[in-house]
Amino acid sequence: MPLIIIILLCILVFILLFLILKKSENFSQIEKHNFKYDDKNKLKIYDECKFSGEGFGSNHELGECSIALQIVPLVKNVLEIGGGAGKVSHMINKIL
């Protein structure tokens, strides 16, 4: 009886590992050109993100702002969690 339980548990672990690996393959199939990259294969930084304001400089949160510029136009709603200086929030509101 204990041997059957061990075998069933091993089968269950293998099935779970298979499902987890299958799910990670789906994420790795997301095409790289969904984001725009520069000639060095790094995330493209948009000039629209190079502005300063109260509490942040022009080079602050450039990556986050550039991602917002690429993603927000593709969706209908945005839920922003977290807080910072407000640069990304400003860009999200400007786009919406």
Task: Explain how this protein is built.
The chain has three helices and no strands. The model is unreliable at 24-33 (pLDDT under 50). It has 96 residues and is mainly α. The longest helix has 27 residues, at 2-28. The radius of gyration is 22 Å and the shape is elongated. Helix 2 runs parallel beside helix 3. It folds into two domains: 1-30; 31-96, no CATH class.
The H-and-E topology, N to C, reads as HHH
Number of strands: 0
Number of domains: 2
Q: Which radius of gyration do the C-alpha atoms yield? A: 22 Å
Distance between the termini: 62 Å
Characterize this entry briefly.
48% of the residues lie in helices and 0% in strands.
Quick tags:
96 residues, mainly alpha, 3 helices, 0% strand, elongated
Secondary structure topology:
Blueprint lengths: L1 H27 L33 H10 L15 H9 L1
